[in-house]
Model the fold of this input.
Amino acid sequence: MQRQLETTPRRPRRRFARGVAALSLLACVACSSSAARPAPVAVSGAPQSAELAVATWNMCSVEQWGCGKTGGPKEKFQQLRRLVVDHEVRVLLLQEVCSQDLESAAEQLGPDWHSVFEPYEEVDAAGARTDVDCTGRGRGRAGYGLLAASPLADTESVAVQQPTLGLHRGILCARVPVQDVRVCNAHIALPESDALHPEWEFRDNQLRSLIEATADDARTVVGGDFNSPPPGSANPVAWIWPPQMYGTYRECDQKGDSREGRPTYADGTKIDYLFTLLPRTGCTVVDTKASDHRPLVMRVSRSGT
Done:
């Protein structure tokens, strides 16, 4: 999806607070297609080492948002499978995913895999909310979700300030009891995302809400598509970033006090992140050619506190 990431810095004048939609839990269903499928990966979520690999990936599956040339469901699933098999990822934070694609991925990966999904909503001038449908037969709604190699528990949507007119993204959290971690997947608003008030900024509040939602849990991994480069002199709206992000927490690609990281978006910027309080043992940016985003994979020590 094409993004205009930065505008002239403007402090918010007034914003409306709206809760995101209630969480929809997904059940794995058999696909009606008769096409042959890869054999299930059947990777257990039971910890087999002291490390856990978590990934975030904006899959660019919503074709009408400029994703028509980034591959179809088959190509995107192959890259999910690659993250699981080659990079040993056991928890994935996914954005711009289609609900039926997510269900199908969980089914194809094997019986231990589970998912939760939250749809994007388009809000019109009258306040009516409409789900965004994915282009293509049987692909369901567009949204963001979690995919894990073990059951997910205590799922919740975090209430954040949203545009009065335009697309509502959001934050989705869940616990992964087998891995003894909590994960939060955030798809943060674009600048000028309120069609009525393009000068209003939402990213600062949404990032702050993400931090507040995880403040009491040291075993949390948070991340997603934040639609902003890292804070620093090159970012004219660096003020949107809560100080805890790179102060209390550490980012997957963070080295010392540096806020820079390898690019994750097609325009050469970094806008995808993974933060944690757990000890980091590795960070990888993966080339897939099946999205305008590159997946980010972080390894953490499960024995850390």
Remarks:
- The first strand starts at residue 17 and ends at 18.
